[in-house]
Amino acid sequence: MIIPKNLKENIQHTIDNLLKLSSIYCWNQISPNLFFILSDFNEFEGANSFERLKSRKRLNNLKTLLSLDSALKLLHKELYDLYDVTLYVFRADKRKTIIEIQYFRKSHLEPDYFAKIKDNPPMFHSKITIPVYVWEGGKFDINWESGGGIGHVWRNFLHKRKIKTKKEMQKLRKQKNRQ
Q1: 63 to 19, 100, 141: CA distances (angstroms)
Q2: What pLDDT is stored for residue 51 in this prediction?
């Protein structure tokens, strides 16, 4: 199967951008030994973002790792139905980096909008989700969404405690001002 040159170039450019983002925002060493998993955006279940994140983590942990060429072959089969392709670092360590290629299909769009964009090529994005406890300019563990370890749990606890304390102080000030 021949992969269209522009698909391979777009994915490679998006991978390069994702690795640059990782080096800017994350303190982890990202291995150049890349593996890939494919995800349909609509395969994750949940009523809110927290439930969808849990579903995403659970399902992605069960997926088989692919080489770039294997991932491209599978994407090529869906090429004309791809609306949006977004790359995330799912997990990274010193030995390997797992990149999730998440796609959204045109066929999942509303019929009116689908008619407008059906002939458009897919859009490509690279994204890194920043945890709530990271202050502007701070670096974080790229693995926070896929587990993150005790450091993530501790920082998240401190962040929640800080918010709770801040809310308690505001509540006390309001009560004091009423008196």
Answers
A1: 22, 10, 22
A2: 80
Location of structure tokens 């969404």: 145
Q: What is the pLDDT of residues 35-84, one digit of tens each?
A: 999 998 877 777 777 787 777 888 888 899 999 999 999 999 989 999 99
How far apart, in Å, are the Cα atoms of 115 and each of 36, 73, 84, 107?
31, 26, 16, 10
pLDDT band at 173 (very low <50, low <70, confident <90, very high): low
Measuring CA to CA, which residue among 115, 113, 150, 154 is closest to residue 133? Answer: 154
CB-based contact 131:152 (threshold 8 Å): yes
CA–CA distance, 50 with 52 (Å, rounded to integer): 5
Cα separation, 49 vs 94, whole angstroms: 29
Q: Looking at this protein, which amino acid is placed at residue 138?
A: G
pLDDT greater at residue 167 or residue 135: 135
Two structure tokens written together for 115:
């008619």
Cα distances (angstroms) measured from residue 51 to each of 28, 45, 124, 148: 26, 7, 25, 17
Label residues 107-129 b or e (16+ Cβ within 10 Å = b). eebeeeeeeeeeeeebebebebe
Is the backbone of residue 89 left (phi > 0), alpha (psi -120 to 50) or beta?
beta
